[in-house]
Amino acid sequence: MTSGSRIGIVGAGVAGLACAKVLSQAGFPVEVFDRAPDVGGVWSATRRYPGLRAHNSKYTNHFSDLPMPEDYPRWPDGQQMQAYLAGYAQHFGLTGTLRLNTEVVAADPVDSGWLLEIRDEMGVHRTSCDHLVVANGVYSDPVMPSLPGEAAFRKAGGRLCHVSQFHDVEQARDRSVVVIGYGKSAWDVAEAVSQVADETSVVARRLTWKMPRTFGAGIDYERLLLTRAGEAHFRSRVPHRAERLLDWLALRETHMDLLQERVTRKLRLRELGLLPAGSIADIATSSASLATDGFIDQVEAGRITVSRDAEVTELIGSKHGPAVRLSDGTVKLAEVVVCATGYRQEVPFLTPFVRRALTDDAGDFRLFRHILPVDVPNLTFAGYNSSNLSALGAEVGAHWIAGLLTGKFVPPMPELMNSEIDEQLAWSNERTEGHHAHGASVGPFSLAALDEMLEDLGTSLSWATRVGQWLRPVRPASYRGVLRGPVVAVPAAPAAAAVAEG
Predict the structure, then answer these.
(1) Could you name the CATH architecture of 7-140+345-494?
(2) What is the pLDDT of residues 283-339, one digit of tens each?
(3) Helices 78-91 and 14-25 sit at what angle, rounded to 10 degrees?
């Protein structure tokens, strides 16, 4: 790529903004497209649901070169996260690169790069770029269950929506609410609506382990999982010395058993009948899901009821009002049904031919380092290395893309990249029984993923910083030194410049 190569970025969330900043500083002309009217991706006002709060604290959930405002609470809410990202765009002069309210409808590969069909307030028209960065998020397409009886349910006054479409808690006031799901978003929205709803029910097909934000005595979730010692307690694809030592001393299982009992007691899971099956090590299936503050208290107070090992099988609309039927035959009044049922990883704007080249038969993305497709030129992915350190992972990934485009490093030969991808996907499928976000997750190995990308770039953290990360949660500012200074784009060759001018 040359300094005049134009970069198109689809998505103005965490990863898209990080790429826009890093690639702009590297000298590339950048355009960022997002169909939302504001930046933020999952934090956009168009997707924010009541109770949404950051997974990490303000001390770990920011870019290396811009800390969160000091007046933010330890755990920022959705509105504060969006404001931080808007401030990031303004601070680094990215507002001129943003094309909000603009959807990329189609992206076709051509010899010179990509031909884009976009839809904005002026209609549908075309533009182009030399390199395309897909940063639309691994949680881009809401999944809604297919339930019979929807028409009658709505006719009876019932409301059915995905959690990303439920924006106002007042819509639940004095009403009967059923939340389908048991992930973080289900806990968040159920706790929020239980404060105003007449009754709140959570229907969970499978209970999963949750990590409390704090355990007391100065111990919190980040000290347990956002350290190198914490990562070492999960079995990685290529075990390092610390993992082997934990196994040799039989400490891995012992520590996990102690953690599981601590979580069980902290959240009163036995008393409330909410003890999941399996081991707490199962949180490694994608990323650790945090327990929403207040959820357990509301269950204990009877403000939230949990129907475990159950599913909603039917929506009902009758003269008695809207309701749902569960798999055990129970019928629940349900004036509002919120589906916290997850997302699909979709790239609908890419042609079917390109999509087939990006994924395998199981729909898993085949991306080297979760960034680079082997068989599709002039295309990279940002934010598909989903982890417990989303902002920092996106930032280091943006530098990886900049290094690739400027020739700072050359990726391995295609056969080696394909072999690495095969091994990674096979290991992820075995470890998580297929629940690894279709190959777009590195959790819980957030620090290991950062190490890999930095090694590709020919740099690494200082020895002292790495040692400190064994017991202290990662601090994004410690990466500022190894990421300092923009990667400079390769200038156009004189001959090429002459042709362009001619």
Answers:
(1) 3-Layer(bba) Sandwich (3.50)
(2) 655 555 789 999 999 999 999 999 999 999 999 998 889 999 999 999 999 999 999
(3) 10
